[in-house]
């Protein structure tokens, strides 16, 4: 993933780094029965969820080792959060999820944190925002994620500082965050860069981009937004059928 920062405002840059989390592969759409362990110090650091034996899917997506996943619909809301797959379930083997290192303790639970979802029947391309009451005791306090109600490439929605109280205290001048998302059309390959149509994107937006499909093992080295266009530079020719998912935040 490449982050392109086009705002020169240092307050907004610092806010973006703190509040935009790395994407998750999938998000569970309902409660996942489990045994929860709140970590050796009982503070969420190293916390795990042990699921039933056998393979597990979230929102139609099979889980693999080291996948990042989001839980937002747990009956016990203190279990919600971003997890990493530590053990892949199979016959006689339980799936084990561990809280992700970037969101496992109270000091990292910033209200307004944004979690993009890459895949899933229901939540592909969705954005979830950490909302509600600031959790201070992980393992006890509710952790609440609210999904954007907008859908479709290039859709824009706004969240005001009154809904993101912690964000307002960091940058009171930023009373609105315009958040956009989209998925590019397939690229035919044959080069190391391509200008994708990105409806709704502006040259001043702060952009994250992730490769969804490619016939080659490549990475994104640069993502440059202009009006309705996102120009991606790859580390090598990504091959035919390459698609990219992007999220933009308007300063």
Structure write-up:
Helices cover 6% and strands 38% of the residues. The chain has 251 residues and is mainly beta. Strands 2-7-8-9-4-3 form a six-stranded mixed β-sheet, with no helix packed on it. Strands 1-16-19-14-13 form a five-stranded antiparallel β-sheet, with no helix packed on it. The longest helix has 10 residues, at 10-19. It is globular and about 50 Å long. The two termini are 20 Å apart.
Instruction: Let me know the number of strands.
Output: 19
Q: Specify Rg, calculated over alpha carbons.
A: 18 Å
Percent helix among the residues? under 10%
Helix vs. strand class: mainly beta
Question: Could you provide a short overview of the structure?
Answer:
This protein is mainly β and 251 residues long. It contains two helices and 19 strands.
List descriptors:
five-stranded antiparallel sheet; 251 residues; disordered N terminus; six-stranded mixed sheet; mainly beta
Please specify the SSE layout and strand pairing.
Blueprint: E1 2-4, H1 10-19, E2 26-28, E3 35-37, E4 48-53, E5 57-58, E6 61-62, E7 68-71, E8 81-87, E9 94-99, E10 114-116, E11 127-131, E12 144-147, E13 155-160, H2 165-170, E14 176-183, E15 193-197, E16 206-213, E17 220-226, E18 229-234, E19 243-250
Parallel strand pairs: 2-7
Antiparallel strand pairs: 1-16, 3-4, 4-9, 5-6, 7-8, 8-9, 10-11, 11-12, 13-14, 14-19, 15-18, 16-19, 17-18
């Amino acid at each position: 993933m490449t982050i392109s920062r086009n705002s020169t405002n240092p307050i907004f840059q610092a806010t973006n780094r703190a509040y935009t989390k790395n994407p998750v592969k999938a998000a569970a759409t309902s409660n996942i029965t489990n045994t929860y362990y709140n970590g050796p110090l009982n503070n969420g650091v190293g916390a795990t969820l042990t699921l039933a034996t056998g393979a597990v899917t979230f929102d139609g997506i099979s889980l693999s080792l080291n996948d990042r996943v989001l839980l937002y619909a747990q009956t016990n809301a203190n279990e919600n959060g971003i997890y990493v797959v530590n053990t892949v379930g199979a016959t006689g083997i339980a799936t084990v999820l561990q809280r992700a290192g970037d969101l496992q303790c109270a000091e990292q639970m910033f209200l307004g944190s944004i979690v993009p979802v890459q895949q899933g029947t229901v939540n592909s391309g969705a954005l979830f925002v950490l909302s509600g009451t600031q959790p201070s005791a992980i393992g006890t306090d509710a952790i609440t994620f609210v999904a954007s109600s907008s859908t479709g490439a290039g859709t824009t929605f706004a969240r005001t500082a009154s809904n993101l109280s912690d964000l307002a205290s960091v940058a009171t001048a930023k009373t609105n965050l315009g958040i956009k998302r989209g998925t590019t059309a397939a690229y035919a390959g044959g080069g190391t860069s391509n200008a994708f149509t990105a409806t709704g994107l502006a040259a001043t937006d702060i952009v994250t981009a992730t490769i969804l499909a490619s016939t080659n093992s490549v990475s994104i080295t640069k993502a440059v937004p202009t009006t309705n266009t996102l120009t991606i530079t790859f580390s090598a020719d990504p091959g035919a059928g390459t698609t990219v998912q992007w999220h933009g935040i308007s300063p």
